[in-house]
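Quick start: what a row looks like.
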Amino acid sequence: MRSLLGSLVILALITGCASKKYVRTELEQSEVRTQEQIQELKAMIEETQSEIKDMAEEYDIKLDPIEEATNENALVLKQMGELRFQTTLSDTGAFFKTDSAELTDAARTELDKFAKLLINQNRLVQIEIQGHTDSRGSEVYNKKLGEQRALSVRDYLYSQFDIPLHLMSVISFGSVKPIADNETREGRAQNRRVVLVVRVKF
């Protein structure tokens, strides 16, 4: 009886050690696999970042610095599995006229380039379209005007390039985020803008 009991205790100890070793081995292998996946994802993101930069240069699209980032390429890994970049409709006559949400010819040209860049990327993206105004008028009015400008951009991308509406969100900041001096005519023109923030999913 004692012999049997002793054998069972020894067997339990051996089994316990084997189980701990198995779990430790599985955890180590899992960590290795995770690190490999992270490295593959990083490589994919870097490749996509390079492609976007090259295409932006080819289509003559200016990429803006993202608020949280200062890197010179205006591209940033926001979180694992996502690449983020943005461009602004305000330069080269693409800004909006006073008290207007109508797209200028220059704005349409810039949006055409932007849409081609997205289509050629052929990846799942989400686009946040931010509307901005200068400081003239009440903030309630400016919020509405900023929204109308963002909607003009969204509707153009949908109607001309069939970019799905569910991939585009619209937000208005009104006049609270100026990028230039509202005391000057040139500054107000730059502030009447739409910013397109793109999140590329992996």
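That is the whole record. Residues 110 and 202 are 26 Å apart (CA to CA). The domain at 45-201 is CATH 3.30.1330.60 (60s Ribosomal Protein L30; Chain: A;).
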